[in-house]
Write a structure and sequence with these properties.
- By secondary structure, the chain is mainly β.
- Helices cover 5% and strands 43% of the residues.
- The protein is built from one helix and seven strands; from the N terminus they run E-E-E-E-H-E-E-E.
- A seven-stranded antiparallel β-sheet has the order 6-5-4-3-2-1-7, with no helix packed on it.
- The longest helix has 4 residues.
- It starts with a strand and ends with a strand.
- Bound molecules: zinc ion.
- One of its GO terms (molecular function) is zinc ion binding.
């Protein structure tokens, strides 16, 4: 599975996977929760190993992916496949 890490100026790093964004919880970055976890109670989440490889994925969302009018600007720091 492939995901991207996006770093936007002045914002936290987010994980982008199939159009959905995930926020990291704590350090090191092992747990990633859907950005709608708090607002919509979405249960989609990832668990990564120390190398950034996905070891667990629950990708069932209770909402549609966020719509971006523009591609998020940010620096791509890692791409896993
Ligand atoms: Zn979600």
């Amino acid at each position: 599975m492939e995901y991207k890490i996006i770093t936007a100026p002045g914002q936290k790093q987010v994980m982008l996977f199939r159009g959905y964004t995930f926020s990291f919880k704590g350090m090191p970055r092992i747990y990633a929760y859907c950005s709608k976890y708090y607002t919509l109670g979405c249960k989609a989440r990832f668990r990564l190993d120390k190398d950034g490889k996905i070891v667990y994925a629950d990708t069932i969302h209770n909402h549609n992916p966020p719509v971006y009018r523009r591609t998020p600007v940010g620096k791509l720091v890692k791409v896993m496949s």
